[in-house]
Amino acid sequence: MIRKGALEEIVEVRQERGFEVRVFIHDRTVIEDTESTVDLRRRGWQLYNYPERMAFSATPSDFGALLIQRCRWANGGLLIVPKLWRFLWTSGAGRARVSEALLRLHYLTSLAAANVALRFLLGLAFDGRLASVWLPITAAPYYLLYAVDLRSMGYRWRDVLRVYALNLLLIPVNLGGVLRSVRQACTGRRSTFGRTPKVVGRTAAPAGYVLAEAGLLGWWTFGALMELEAGHRLNGLFALANAAFLLYALVRFVGLREACEDLRPLVAQTAHGLGTLRLAFVWRRFVPPLIVVLALLFPAAATGADLAITLDDLPSHGSLPPGITRLALADQIVEVRTEDRSPTRPNSASSWSTGSPRATGWVITRSATLTSIGPGRMDFSLMSSAMSR
To answer: CA-CA distance, 63 to 365, in Å (whole number)?
Structure first.
């Protein structure tokens, strides 16, 4: 519940299509409730938390819906941090204010800081100075309190292990939301509000996130094997345990069959692109013989063949002189051929030079004599045409 007087103090008046619109809950970020909370605290309003359950809502039933929800939750916290600093600066530096500011700062930045840190801590190799059993023990108090909280809510103690696996699974998802916040801060464009789907069937997850999960699993597994091979048993066992937890999360929360279905569009698109590229390379070998055949059967087409082969062969002559570009040279050839409309027979050599104001003083000498054709090779004297002063 929110007092109407509190909403009146944080209202903003906007002009939309010529009408005055009063906005109480701001939509600069996709976590508008958190931003409005900071606005209310800046104006001196007190907030109280009632821990009892007031209502029930549908929990995301699959990884695709959960991805949309958690990506939205991770987006926007960094954008509200400047408001929090202004609240701390204007309200004084009392002990209560500092404690509240630190608590809210952790809430706003924890998803960004923790997931970036996990990305490096779990993915990079460290030397023996950090290979201590005390390093993972430092996280024991956190997960102990987590387990106590879960137990008080009616869950089992071992469910904290499933929570740990879920947190590993959500690393790419949270990083995706954080990157959207960074993009909004740099470009000024608001992120779209992704509503959590509430449908009967399964919500497909974006193929990029599924591929990121598979890449993360492969990276950690490879890193664990490398650590064990190097004799760093503690580091290797720790990395192998994290890979096992992530594999459990992929099987339990995503599903191998569902992951393959989500990756199918990406695989099909990649295969189509590779097929088109392969077809282009296959047909490319038939282009030079086809040009030769057209030049021999239709002498009138030899001029067009000259230009096509000459332009394609320009890089083989080495670097062009300063001030001469491939496009300028092609323009001169076309202009010369347009001015000199005298027919050229296939077996005769000819030289042209341009007298236009854009002339560079270069003479293009070329011959249309076919010398030899062999397997995988065609020597066409036009392809060895020279450029000289």
So the answer is: 67
